[in-house]
Amino acid sequence: MSYVQPLNTGATRERRIAYSSEGLCYSSLSKLFFVLAALSICGGLLLCIEFWLGDSPEGMEWTIHAYIPSLTAIVVGVVQFSIYTAIGQALSYLKRIADNTDQNSRK
Questions:
Q1: Distance (Å, whole) CA 39 – CA 43
Q2: pLDDT tens digits for 50-82?
Q3: How far apart are CA 41 and CA 75, in angstroms?
Q4: Are 89 and 37 in contact (CB under 8 A)?
Q5: For 12-31, what is each residue's pLDDT tens digit?
Q6: Contacts with 67 (C-beta within 8 Å, 6 or more apart), sequence order
Q7: In angstroms, rounded to a whole number, what is the distance separating the alpha carbons of residues 29 and 25?
Q8: Alpha-carbon distance 69 to 80, whole Å?
Q9: Residues 68, 48: Cα–Cα separation, whole Å
Q10: How far apart are CA 29 and CA 84, in angstroms?
């Protein structure tokens, strides 16, 4: 005996409207945020490589504190990438909601 019954909310109809034949189309502002995300991850990687230390002097070795700038650069690049990508996806999602609302209000 099952205590859970399927809830018929018309979600399949809503999903068909959300993913129409156009597919996912991103606005120019979303695309700009995706480009910024790509640039920030590339910039973080390049700065990490640039700040990475070379060989230590003879008879010495680098402490963990010497690697902080390079690790900070890559972490900041990844965080910026995540934020810019999330903003771009959120704008795309809001655009689809607005399009669906506009489409349903015309009916």
A1: 6
A2: 999 888 888 888 888 989 999 999 999 999 999
A3: 9
A4: no
A5: 555 554 555 456 678 889 99
A6: 52, 53
A7: 12
A8: 16
A9: 10
A10: 11
Please tell me the pTM assigned to this model.
0.70
Report the candidate in 30, 34, 28 with the shortest Cα–Cα distance to residue 91. 30
For 89, other C-beta atoms within 10 Å of its C-beta total 14
DSSP secondary structure letters along 85-100: HHHHHHHHHHHHHHHH
How confident is the model at residue 5, as a pLDDT? 60
User: Both tokens of residue 23?
Assistant: 């597919």
Q: At what angle do helices 68-105 and 11-18 cross, to 10 degrees?
A: 110
Q: What is the DSSP letter of 57?
A: P
Tokens of 35: 């480009």
Q: Residue 53 is which amino acid?
A: L
**Separation of alpha carbons 7 and 11, rounded Å:** 10
